[in-house]
Amino acid sequence: MGNVATEHQYDTADALAEAVAAVLRHTCEEAIARRGRAMLALAGGRTPLPLYRRLAAAPLPWEQVLLLPTDERCVPQDHPACNQRALADAFAAADGVRLAGLTVADGDPDRSALAARDLLAGRPEPFDAVVLGMGGDAHVASLFPGAPQLPGALDPHATRDACRIDPQPLPPDAPYPRISLTAARLLRTRALHLVITGDKRAVLRDALASTATQRPPVAAVLDAATAPVHVHWSP
């Protein structure tokens, strides 16, 4: 890892959600005080949604906060599998918060990749925080092992901030192409938080210990990190 990760262990998933929400609230407060705005890149999936709901209840000047997904499924924006829709629901209490999406309205993969790059080109500054989850195959964002676009997407020196990812095979629970922030863009942040529960701690340890030529995605991202890295885990 580019630096040593700080590990945080919690007794319950609720305790994890409460603690990480408090960290992100402080992050937003500090960013707004220093720069007048805050920008967070947030993972989708079930694990982080409770912490987002807690964060949304914080009395922040939400109109000065921009949120965007770390990745998105190429589905219409009103589809149940859409991460942007899930974030909007989780932050419903955050009056005035700005939410940027990575896809076009109908979810077309190629047009969405172009739209995501245009969006990010207009926001080149580091994220104030990135929140990542991790799959059982050690993927983060939508950087799936075996995807043909993975090597370029993991290049820490890549110039593209977002790309299309075609998981192979497609996950049966969400069989869609994806748009993902690249590792290079995820790493352009002031802090990186990995949020995992249950036996995914063992998946993370195995990934970090891997000696394979192609590092598992989570290991490749954490290896290249220069910002502070925090790993949050609960049973």
- The CATH architecture name reads 3-Layer(aba) Sandwich
Shape: globular
Q: What structural class should be given to the helix and strand makeup?
A: alpha/beta
Strand order of the largest sheet: 1-10-9-6-2-3-5
Average pLDDT, all residues: 96
Let me know the number of strands: 10
Query: How much β-strand is present in the residues?
Result: 15-25%
For the record, the count of structural domains works out to: 1
C-alpha termini separation: 24 Å
EC number: 3.1.1.31
Domain Glucosamine/galactosamine-6-phosphate isomerase: 12-223
Function: Hydrolysis of 6-phosphogluconolactone to 6-phosphogluconate.
Protein name: 6-phosphogluconolactonase
Task: Give an overview of the whole structure.
By secondary structure, this protein is an alpha/beta fold. The chain has a single domain, classed as Rossmann fold, CATH 3.40.50. Helices cover 33% and strands 18% of the residues. The chain has eight helices and ten strands. The protein has a seven-stranded parallel β-sheet. A three-stranded antiparallel β-sheet has the order 4-8-7. 45% of the residues are buried. The model has no long low-confidence stretch (mean pLDDT 96). InterPro entries: 6-phosphogluconolactonase_DevB (IPR005900), 6PGL (IPR039104), Glc/Gal-6P_isomerase (IPR006148), NagB/RpiA_transferase-like (IPR037171). This is 6-phosphogluconolactonase. Keywords: Hydrolase. It holds the Pfam family Glucosamine_iso. Hydrolysis of 6-phosphogluconolactone to 6-phosphogluconate.
